[in-house]
Predict the structure of FAD-binding protein.
Amino acid sequence: MSLYCRPFLAMNPSLRCNDIHSKLNPTRVAEVLFPQDEDDVIRAVVEAKNQRRAISICGGRHAMGGQQFGEDTLLLDMTGLDFVKPVDRVHGTVEVGCGIQWPALLAALHAQQEGEETVWTIRQKQTGADNLTIGGALAANIHGRGLRMKPFVDDIECFRIVDAEGVPHHCSRTENEKLFALAIGGYGCFGIVTAITLRLSPRIKLQRIVEVTTLDLLPDTIRERIGRGCLYGDFQFSIDEQSDDFLWKGVLSSYRPVSGDPVIPTSQTVLNATKWQELVTLAHHDRKKAFQTYADYYLSTHGQLYYSDIHQLSMYVNDYHEQLNRDARPACQASEMITELYVPHDHLISFMKEAATLLRSRGVAVIYGTMRLIRKDSVSFLSWAQSDFACVIFNLHTEHSEEGIAQAAQVFQSLIDLAISFQGSYFLTYHRWARRDQIEAAHPNFAAFLSEKLRLDPQERFQSNWWRHHRDLFSLFSNR
């Protein structure tokens, strides 16, 4: 019997896939399988090898850079591997399936430890959306809004990965350490991660501190907040390009531990789906009011209490742009595209001033913008946090026309050039619009990364549109 007819591998009737956020990655795959455990994954890889078929790997389907789909590949949807094993309360770790998503993981951790004085929980997650898999977080080496945290590699104790031959491996900092470093931030190029052991932290209560401030005051304020023990924080800057405050004024939110065991009220102010959609709509039509509305909302939450894990969850409405498209009736569809840029702390103010000038001159709407901090990552092979950086995120409105996409690509390339001019870098995850010279400048070992991929997977069993794009951009020989 063919593997693809086995009942544990349900078929997806739709073979045309796309990412959830930008919807700029339409890809027709050959088949979609839903493995339920590692044995299913091994059988799928072995049969794909025997049939000389390429495999792509997806989870929450939010990635915008083409890492999760490949034209005419066998797509493995990993969301069925969603187990959570018992928490190791001695070492503060837990083994989870690669397909578990953040809300389900938190629910499982809380349920397991109900009534315990110390509850072990996650350290960080990416913001913006919650229904993302832990396997995807590993593949992109994500980060959250920790003020003194390294990327997600620092939260990973070990993992299991199935290679191109269908052989599983245990990887850690001391066992198969090179594969460990390659796969974290490796975008699925080196195999299928099935299980991940996470390093946890005790769950604590935090108080949110909110103020509206300006970029020139931000460095000293952040240092003061860290000195007061704040663990998380971010700076949401003004997106009104008509204002002198554009990219300069912003809402600084930080979170500090509270002493004792205060009760968290159930009546606290929250941003529900309706308010979130209204805020996004304002950002498209009245960015001055959007920023003021956002600032007013956050200021109203000053002093509120949160758990250290729950406060990292975010409101996100799937297909939110469909409503905007219907209301505006544009000539073509549109969505937002994200880029994330890194600059040394000392260059942040100069970078933001020049970025404001650049974005105004291009006439592209910034729908959302935020700033965070990251500590240097010395473990992952394709480390994007090559130094302690300020992380600057721009979410740009992008029309789905040839002209609109070209305009967004040109703006993103210009922003990358700007970051590089300040000894900075950019995140590879969100798009494939960087030029080769930009990739080489921002990620000096990228060519070596591609070579390692072909060394460990010479038949290119694991493929994606992201991999194919960069393989061709660097003119690497393909064995397929």
User: Anything to note?
Assistant: The chain has two domains: 1-203+445-480, 205-435.
